[in-house]
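Running co-folding for magnesium ion.
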Amino acid sequence: MKIQNSTKKLLYRIFQNYIRKHNKKLFISFFCMIIVSATTAINAWMMQPVLDDIFIKKDERLILIIPLVILLIAILKGFSSYFQSILMSFIGYKIVADLQNDMFRTLLKCDISYFSKTNSGTLISRFLADVGALSRGVHNVVINIIKDFFTLVFLIGVLFYHNSNLALISLFVFPLAIYPISRIGKRLRKISKSTQIGFGILTKRLSESLQGIKTIKSFNAEFIEQNKVEKEVDNIFQLTYKSSKVNSISRPLMETLGGLAIAIIIYVGGSQVISGTTTPGTFFSFLTALLMAYQPIKSLASLNATLQMAMASAERIFDIIDSKPNIVESSLTKDNLLKKNSSYDIKILNVSFSYPDDEKNILKDISIEIKKGEKIALVGYSGAGKTTLLNLLPRFYDVKKGKIFIEDVNIKDLSFNFLREHFSLVSQDIVLFDDTLKYNVCYGLSNITEKQILAACKKANCDEFIKKFPKGLNEIIGEKGVKLSGGQKQRIAIARAFLKNSPFLLLDEATSSLDSRSERKIQKSLTDLMKNKTSLVIAHRLSTIIDADKIILLHNGKIEDIDRHKNLLKKSKIYKNLYELQFKNTMK
Ligand SMILES: Nc1ncnc2c1ncn2[C@@H]1O[C@H](COP(=O)(O)OP(=O)(O)OP(=O)(O)O)[C@@H](O)[C@H]1O
Ligand SMILES: [Mg+2]
């Protein structure tokens, strides 16, 4: 059987990283498998004394001993099977767990841009379907190679022990099967790849449809979703059916060859029994061993197919585990040049930026100086690049050209921990987890007392609505916080920022309009939050721009102007237009 180079490498890696550490269990399991194999062969061999000595010679001594031996062998086989099975299951499931943990660990380190490229459905399918397929494959391959191989060796031993000529005749037919079966393996690998891709698309479609159920209903678009999902389900059906069909091609081949071998044996062996050169016991023991050899030969023949399918999954799993982030921490951090959690000046110097895999510059030659304690507002039309600029400060993306400094330290020289601790980010789209309010408010923060949580909620004007929930802070808020209103979600995000209490505040004001009461509440919370902090606020509210020390007007990724509200209103057409459209009517 020709094993491809890539398969060898993958197998070596799986063995080194995921199997080898279980070598004790593996060894015991191998040992048990060999016992199982040997007992199978002994059972076949026992046919000879049973027939010849008990039935034909009518030996009364053996009538007790042989059944006893058979019973003992059965018990030995049973226990060995049991230990082999639990040990191999342990190793198999542990491989699943280790791979899943490794994948998730890498994913958390991946650049944010990786997730805009790779669909989350595809990723989830790799976590579940691919990891499962790989572990099943490894499990089967190990059992095939050890148990089936040794069973076969022992049974062939019995065949040769009894009648070597007959053994040669019966074994000569099987090599004929190897070529077509290895071809089948290759086809299965291809089908398996398409199947796993199909699972990825299906997961994506399902999660998209279920999350967008409101939009679907409001557009009466159920049938569109139904068609999309049906298409994927059907695709997977076709592929899995095809895979099973290809896999079954080996059956008629193996059955025919097996039948041929047995027919020849009965003809030749039967003639020998009739002529008296062989005893009936030897003949039946031979036949039993041959029949028993059928199953291990069959699974060894399909070994390549199993292996190929598992390797198709392994490739995709390691694809994830090997992905390397482009945004990395510098090995020599200069954290010690700055004090933890204190305010500094921020300098953005000639920064240009384009999203990965996209040539177009979204930000062009941006230079901004933010003095310690200042409140800077960032305004501009939708798509101007405001959120993009904000994302550069905590290094969610790295600048393409130019530099960003905190005091005199390039942010690339700071550790992620240190850098990100300095920024509180309240973003346009607030992400809440399906857990309690309390969990969401102090997410990612440690050593927070109940008192601090309550104080932060009060400052963010959350206390009122939290009290209305039957379980208060312990209320579970549902997926993405469905139980909260838009304004309530924003206030939770503000409460988080109060608790985090970082010296810099990055605020992407929500564009959604709220009623004047909650708008005023949010406004007040935000004003409190910004006190004694250096803040960069993407403004959608009049009060924010009027209070700002400086307003940066961003237009098509360039700084159009920097000034205060009144001056900009006088000199900038774009600003005047924005003001008329966006800010004039917002609540003060
Ligand atoms: N992940 C991304 N990959 C590629 N392009 C992106 C990505 N995110 C944003 N863009 C593009 O970058 C440009 C600026 O987007 P950005 O989100 O910074 O705008 P914005 O000024 O915050 O707009 P808004 O006021 O609507 O929030 C847009 O043209 C957008 O299409
Ligand atoms: Mg934005």
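Result summary
The chain has a mean pLDDT of 89.
The CA atoms of residues 505 and 530 lie 7 Å apart.
Job closed.
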